Amino acid sequence: MAAPAPLAPFPPSRDACPTLPALLLQRGYGLRPLVADDLPWLRELYASTRAEELAPVPWPEAAKRMFLDSQFALQHQHYLAHFGDSHFLAIEHDGAAVGRYYLQCGASHDLIVDISLFPAERRRGVATALIAHSQHEAGLRGSDMQLHVDGANPAALRLYQRLGFVGVEQQGTHLLMRWQRARA
């Protein structure tokens, strides 16, 4: 099997990296800008987010891997092309990469482009704490937040609803959701 084509590098890190809430810092979590050397584990992270979906597909494992690699490459290109001014961050636990957080900060609203965690880190409150903290930070700057959730991911939909996001518009397979800061 041929090696995947090289992927475009991440843009230089932004000046002010989003911060983590004290709860996650105390538990050994951190954020750092992503670099090209992170692409191999990001490819594995992406594959882990599609594992359940592809489990019943009767393809050989090598075909599934080629499909996932191509989909990861397309997603990576799309994110860089359309959200290149975002913070592309690794979520780390005790120095090891456990997920990614792509956040675009804007004047009127911030956009959670992507948040993904490896299976062992899911359902431990990491995404909840990180998003809630980002909402707080956005609110302090006078910004609301938006995100898109895949309609085939009910767990993510429930999480976002618990955090105050409301469905705004169905866009193909994804639902645009919005959180509005408290108005004075």
Describe the model:
This protein is of the alpha+beta class and 184 residues long. 36% of the residues lie in helices and 27% in strands. The protein is built from five helices and seven strands; from the N terminus they run H-E-H-H-E-E-E-H-E-H-E-E. It has helices at residues 22-26, 39-54, 61-82, 126-140, 154-162, and strands spanning 29-33, 87-93, 96-104, 109-117, 144-150, 166-171, 174-179. A seven-stranded mixed sheet has the order 1-2-3-4-5-7-6, with helices on both faces. Strand 6 (166-171) and strand 7 form a beta hairpin. Helix 2 (39-54) crosses helix 3 (61-82). The longest helix is centred in the middle third of the chain and has 22 residues, at 61-82. The radius of gyration is 17 Å and the shape is globular. The N and C termini lie far apart (59 Å). The relative contact order is 0.14. The model has no long low-confidence stretch (mean pLDDT 93).
Number of helices: 5
Helix content: 25-40%
Strand order of the largest sheet: 1-2-3-4-5-7-6
Taking the alpha carbons of the first and last residues, their distance comes to 59 Å
The stretches of 5 or more residues where confidence is low (pLDDT under 50) are: none
What's the rounded overall pLDDT mean?
Answer: 93
Inertia-based shape: globular
Biggest pleated-sheet summary: 7 strands, mixed
Order of helices and strands: HEHHEEEHEHEE
Task: Give me the count of strands.
Answer: 7
Structural class: alpha+beta
Q: What Rg, in angstroms, do the CA atoms define?
A: 17 Å
Strand content: 25-35%
